[in-house]
Amino acid sequence: MDCIKKEVVKVEEESKFNDEKPADSMPAASSTVPGKSRMVGFGNELSQLKDVLTVQRSSQQIVSIVGMGGTGKKISNESVDELGESDDKLEELGERLYKSLSGRRYLIVLDDMWSIELWDTIKFFFPENNNGSRVILTTRLSNVATDLHSFCIRINFLDEHESWIVFCQKAFGGEDCPPQLVVTGKKIVEQCKGLPLSITVIAGLLRAKVI
Predict the structure, then answer these.
(1) Among 62, 114, 121, 180, whose Cα sits 20 to 30 Å from the Cα of 98?
(2) Mean pLDDT estimate for the chain
(3) pLDDT of 11-27, one tens digit each?
(4) Are 35 and 46 in contact (CB under 8 A)?
(5) Cα–Cα–Cα angle for 115, 116, 121, nearest 5°?
(6) Cα diameter, the chain
(7) pLDDT at residue 53 above 70?
(8) In this predicted structure, what is the pLDDT of residue 160?
(9) For 175, which DSSP code?
(10) Euclidean distance between the first and the last CA atom of the chain, given in angstroms as a whole number
(11) Cβ atoms within 10 A of the Cβ of 67, count?
(12) Three-state secondary structure string covering the chain
């Protein structure tokens, strides 16, 4: 319920901002954040996502990203029960969201979708405007992506080389691992089994101790 309410408020605020923004206003120039880590791995998956988001297609498209848990908010099975107990409030929020999105081209991201039942409850909030709108769902469950009949992108684990790069980025700020820590560091990385979250957490703890 909270995630839907936040999405409604965000869409309404953006709509208000766009209405008030002067027609001749220019977007702010982007800048590169100093010391920001570059993305490691997932190059193929990112290319797939870019392709599906930019392809010329008028109908709404659902994109599922399937992989192990690691980051983001959880929409648990308990949330489905909670929504069922507050149908009136959910319907009100859904109606506001639907009206805010109607006639607009939108990109919605729903993180950590745990069941097809939840999607069946909220999918009517996203209107088919025939203007190329997209809805991206992330999930740990392959059957959710299958039941949605969506375009599916599967996220694989990092390989040994990629895992080591991520570890060094997080633990040593992108610098080379100190020689005396290489053997121990590679043993730690091996135990993480290519899971980015595990590597990041452990490397962060190591960095705190080194600093």
Answers:
(1) 114
(2) 76
(3) 656 655 555 544 343 33
(4) no
(5) 105
(6) 62
(7) yes
(8) 92
(9) S
(10) 41
(11) 18
(12) CHHHHHHHHHHHHHHHHHHHCCCCCCCCCCCCCCCCCCCCCCHHHHHHHHHHHHCCCCCCEEEEEECCCCCCCCECHHHHHHHHHCHHHHHHHHHHHHHHHCCCCCEEEECCECCHHHHHHHHHHCCCCCCCCEEEEEECCHHHHHHHCCEEEECCCCCHHHHHHHHHHHHHCCCCCCHHHHHHHHHHHHHCCCCHHHHHHHHHHHHHHHC
- Calpha distance 74→17 (Å, rounded): 29
CB 104 within 8 A of CB 64: no
Which tokens belong to 170? 């997080």
Residue partners of 73: CB distance under 8 A and separation at least 6: 3, 111, 112
- The neighbour count for residue 39, using CB atoms within 10 Å, is 9
* Mutual angle of helices 2-20 and 87-101, in 10-degree steps: 30
Would you state the structure tokens that stand for residue 136, as one six-digit string? Answer: 């991206």
DSSP β-bridge partners for residue 75: 113
Reduce the DSSP state of residue 98 to 3 states and report it.
helix
